[in-house]
Please model this.
Amino acid sequence: MLPRLLKFVIRTRFSRPFLVLLAVITVYSVGLSRLAGSQKLSLIVGDYAAALTALFLVMSLATGGVMVLKSDRDYLFTLPLSSKDLSIAIYFSQFIAFGTSILFMFILFAETLASPLVVVDLVALAFALTSLGVVAPSLGAKTRLLLAAALAAWTLLALLGFPLSPASAFNGNVYGGTLAAVSLSAVATLAAFRSLGRVELDMMRNLVRSTAAEIKSPISYAGKSPTRAIYSMNLSSITLAGRMNMAGTSRYVSKRVRTRWVVAATASAAIAYAVLVVLEGPPTAFVTGTDKLPAAIVVSVLLGLLSFFISQSAITNERVWLSLTSLPPPVYFRHLVASKLISLFLVLAPFAAADAVLLAVGYGAALGPLVVVLLVIPAAFVLEILWSCYVAPIQVKGEDMTMPGQFSLSQFATVLPLIPALVLASVATLFPGAAAVGGGIMVIASVALVFSGGFWERVVARLTESGFV
Model:
C-alpha cells in the first residue's frame, strides 16, 4: 500500500517536468562534485555556505507548512490508511519540495564534496529543512520567531570559527559541523513525524489562528482615495512570500508583518553586520579593487534573496476585479510597484546607512555593497515584480495551507531577474563600477517596462488567463 500511496501523493503535487528537472539537477550536481576533486573551500565560499544554510533553515521554519491540499482533507484523510504510511508519504513529498533545495548548494560547494562527511552534512541539512517545514504549523508565531532567531545565530557562528554549528563543515570544521547537522536533523525529524500524526488538528488550529488574527487586527481604508489606500496598505505592512520557486515547488505561503517590526529587525542586523566587518580586520586590510569584504558580499546576497521573497507577494494577494475598477490598470500597477519599492527602501535603509558609515571610516570596499543596496537590489526587485506578474502569476483565493502542488517551468523562471543581482552583489566589493553600470541598466529596463502601457495590457491579459478574479 505504501508504494501506491507514495505514487499518488507525488503525482498530485508535482508535475513530470519538475521531477525530470530535479533528476537532471541532482545528476549534474553530484557528477560535478565528483569531478572537482578535493580542495579546501575559500573563505568567501565558506561564508556563502554558512549564510545560505542559515537562510534556508530560517525560511523553512518561518514560511513552512505541510503539503496537504483541500482534496486530501476531503478524500485522502477519509480512507482507511495506516497513519504511519500516510505520514511517510506526506514527509517524502515535503522532502522533494523543501529538502532538495540543498541540492543547489552541490554546485557551489563542489570543491569539497569529495569528502564523504560533507555529503552526510548536506543530507542531514536536507532532512532538517524538510522537518522544520513540517513542524512549523504546530508552533505559535512567537515560538517560531524565537526558534528561527536561535537557529540563525547558531548557524552563523560558523563565520566566527565555532566548530559545532550546522554550517561549520563548510568552514573547515567538518567533523564538528557534521555532528551538529546530524543532531539537528535527528531532533527535527522526530518532531516532524510527531507533528504529522496530528496534521489535521494542526491545520484546524492554524485556521482558527488566522481567522482570529483577521478579526483582531482589521485594516480599514474608509475615506481614502484608491491611491492613498494602495500606499497605506503597502507601507504599513510587508508581506513575505514563501513561494519557493528556487527550490522547485509552487507551494505558496505568505506572512504579513508590520513594517516597523521588519525595519527594527533589519536595523539590528545592520548593526551586527557593521560589527562583523570591523571584526574581520582594520580598514587597511580591505581596499577597493584589491580585496574582497566577505561579510559585505554575504549580506548583499542575503538582501537580494530577501527582496525576491518580498517581490513574489506583490500580485498574489490582489483582487483584480476590485483593483482594476478603481483605477486604470497602468496607473494602478505603477502605484503598486512604487509603494512596494518604497517599503523595500525602508527595509534596506539600515544597511545603506551601515555601508555609508563603513565607507566614511575607511572601509573602501564598502562602496560596492552600498551601490548594490541603493541601486542593484531595488532595480532587480522591480524587475522581479514585473516578471512574476507576466510569467507565472498565482493568486491566493482560499485558506488552504498550500497552493496546488503542480510545478511548472514558467513558475521556476520567476527567479531569472534575481540571477544578475546576485552576480553583481558577488563582485561589487572588487568592481563597484561594474555594479553601478549593471544596476543602471536594470533601472533603465525596469522604468521602461513600468511606464509601458502595452506591457500592463499584456499583464492584465495574463492575469485573466490565469484565473485572477
In short: Residues 251 and 402 are 6 Å apart (CA to CA). Confidence is low (pLDDT under 50) at residues 36-43, 207-216, 242-252, 399-406. Strands lie at 237-241, 254-258.
